[in-house]
Amino acid sequence: MDKVIKLMESKGYYVLKLSKTNKQGIPDLLCLKKDEVPFFIEVKTDKGVVSALQLYRQKELKELGFKSIIINNTNNL
């Protein structure tokens, strides 16, 4: 996760790690940048599995107009 945060911050994003929220399954990171629509990133390891609830949250966020992506294998960043 730290690699993703550092990468996004190097691209000028203000990155928030969402560890405790009122909604379970929300993606791990919120990326903010002036004059851009905020977007979310779910970070998974090689063996990590996206749960049905996480997929639902991805869909929910996209329906609200937000970009929400899943990154697998952060070793290749």
Structure description:
With 77 residues, this protein is α+β, with helices and mostly antiparallel strands. It has a single domain, classed as Trna Endonuclease, Chain: A, domain 1, CATH 3.40.1350. Helix content is 27%, strand content 26%. It is built from 2 helices and 4 strands, in the order H-E-E-E-H-E. A 4-stranded mixed β-sheet has the order 1-2-3-4, sandwiched between helices. The protein is globular and about 30 Å long. The relative contact order is 0.23.
What is the gist of this entry?
With 77 residues, this protein is α+β, with helices and mostly antiparallel strands.
Write out key terms for the chains shown.
77 residues, alpha+beta, Trna Endonuclease, Chain: A, domain 1, 4-stranded mixed sheet, 2 helices, globular
Write down the CATH topology. Answer: Trna Endonuclease, Chain: A, domain 1
- The average pLDDT score comes to 92
The CATH class is identified as Alpha Beta
Oligomer: single chain
Major β-sheet annotation: 4 strands, mixed
Number of helices: 2
Neighbour order of strands in the largest sheet: 1-2-3-4
The CATH level-2 architecture is identified as 3-Layer(aba) Sandwich
Helix-strand pattern, N to C? HEEEHE
Cα gyration radius (Å): 12 Å
How many DSSP E strands? 4
